User: Fold this.
Amino acid sequence: MKNSKIQGILDKAKEAIESADSVETFNSIKSFFLSRKSELMSMMSTLGTLEPEERKEFGQELNQAKEEISKSIDEKIEELSKKELAEKLAKEQIDISLPSSNFTSGGKNPFHVIKDEIVDIFLGMGFDVADGPEVESDEYNFKLLNIPDDHPARDMQDTFYISDNVLLRTHTSPVQAHVMQQAEGKPIRIICPGKTYRRDDDDATHSHQFAQIEGLVIDKNINIGHLKATLELFVKQMFGEKREIRLRPSYFPFTEPSVEVDITCANCDGKGCSMCKGTGYIEILGGGMVHPNVLKMNGYDPEVYSGFAFGVGIERVAILRYGIDDIRRFYQNDVRFLHQYRKKA
Ligand code: DAH
Assistant:
């Protein structure tokens, strides 16, 4: 540089650039030396006052100094960001050759495997899935099912009462009344899976919370043959073609006649063994023809319509299907138990 002032600025700038070590400092150096108010730029504004010859040389030197400063700052910034990136990458490096930590995948609880299978079987027969509240009124849980106050059948279902008239449903049967009232006299073909509650001391075969699937079919000319055929199809699909069913007379206030349904024991094929207490059969569910009072109370004329209903314990089906020894296993979430059903899920 011929101009010693420009050379001086350039030297000062270079010195500052050499000693800077952050992007921030570089930016302030840039602004100090090259902003409109900088020494270099104010010298630019004097160009117009110079003689053409002088102006050309002075102008060129100014531009050259400006470019040099700007270029070396940009280079330094780039260098710095590359360095920062390299440091960051080195710090955050992951070793993909390390073995992964143990990963186990979950699966469906056998309860859900069976529930879904039961639902699928009935969907295949043209049933719809209905739903109802778990917190019920006494009216729906009992009265509309032909179980008035003081009926002895109430004793069979020890109940969690919330108030005198509100309780946790003891069975899924109240959904029958809800569905009938909503259907307003039209034919019905539904199942309803859901939780049910009874005050029970929990042991291998009892649980204060369990689950049922309710079934209800109402139409003209429905008879007990339809109930038997439906349940036979269900049992064969759930337990295999070899299973036979047997209908035994029973009593439920909301069905007449009522039946208890047994299936041939899987252990002895109906010959009689210790599992079926020598009878060859194991009880699986309850059902019957919907009682005329229940039809009437829920908006159906029993002279025109008839229907069948059934209720099946989901855990009971799962216990029989898998040979599970204790109902509490479904709820305890012991992975040693659950893992046995992982592949089936
Ligand atoms: N609600 C009965 C129970 O929990 C089971 C049952 C029996 C349901 C007969 C029905 C039925 O729909 O028709 O013990």
